Amino acid sequence: MAEKHLGELGWKALAVRHKLKDDGLAKSLATLAKLGADGDAKARLATLDDIAATAKKLRKDKAVAAVDDAAAWLDEMVKEAAKARAAAEAAAKAPAPKEKPDAAKTAKADAAQKAAPADDGGDEGDENSPDIGKRLLAGLARVKAADGEADLAFLAVPGAPAWALAVARMIAPADRKLLSESVKSPKSPVTGTCVWRDGKYTFVVPAVRGGLAAGLAGAIRHWTKKKLGVAVTDGKTTIDDANDTEEPAADGAPPTEPRVPPLRKPTAPELAVSKRSLDAWVAARTEIVTQLKAVAADLNSAEHPEKDKAVIQLGAVARQLTAQPTELRQVDELERWLKDDDVVADICDLAFDLRTPLLGALAEIRRDLTPAK
After folding, report:
1. What pTM did the predictor assign?
2. pLDDT of 85-117, one tens digit each?
3. 238 phi and psi angles, rounded to 5 deg
4. Is residue 126 assigned to a domain?
5. Distance between CA 85 and CA 3 in Å, rounded?
6. CA 174/CA 8 separation, integer angstroms
7. Which domain does 35 fall in, by range?
């Protein structure tokens, strides 16, 4: 992975594990990630300078130098920061290329705009606002802007008069507290991911239940005053709020199984995943989630200012693992994510190998779903 030593989680895991001082290095690494490769050039250069200076300072600390893994990590971090700085300087000096309209992207954007509800209004909200509605609008705007290429985490707390809902890159403990305090008689939360798909905000959950789509759509209407298209899927069954005939329980009682069949009807005989392949995936996924929870527990017991963020990232990885991938599209997405995601790479480098068993199980599912030639 390019510039893996400039990732926040990698250094954070080492610092927590060995109880090392941080001096704000994790915060600078997080800032660099937020800026991205195309972020503000001056801000990126300044952040890279901060990272290099802090890493060199920590490298001279006796406690840090005594830990071989940490010392080696910081050495590589300084080298990668220098390379990234040279690339950023070159990009800053280069003239900005004149953009040419991409016909395919333009057509895709137009189609998405037509498919989106008319009252989506373009209000992107404010993700830092204490107002649930504004925070929710900001999260939904990010989901739609990604256009199916990425998803965000969501947390819904059933209650009255409507469910409380948050959609964000990471759900922090403060979000849980805010949502629980915003409804009467809050019950066990519903978690998963949210992605823009087929012109709707699609909430991916482990198992679809009647009332979920209606509850989530009701939450959006209540907090944002907007009526937006919502669907819920677990990979096998998809149901949208218009067809969710089960009323959401205001008190958070478990909704019943949906009585509505999947929206997408196959036009030709479809290949099915064998029970053996699906059981292998479930077993591998269960083991990985168990190990992720163990790593999170170790981090929680450590005294480190950045441990909460690391625990949240581990939870996000666990949520990304689809419970039962039964479509080639899901297999493609999972394989691409496992191979390319920076956090996954850091976990494999610093904690345990989660890629190999999961990719092996996905390969079996892919064989089941691939027509024989």
Report:
1. 0.39
2. 888 887 777 665 554 445 554 454 454 444 444
3. -125, 135
4. yes
5. 12
6. 21
7. 4-93
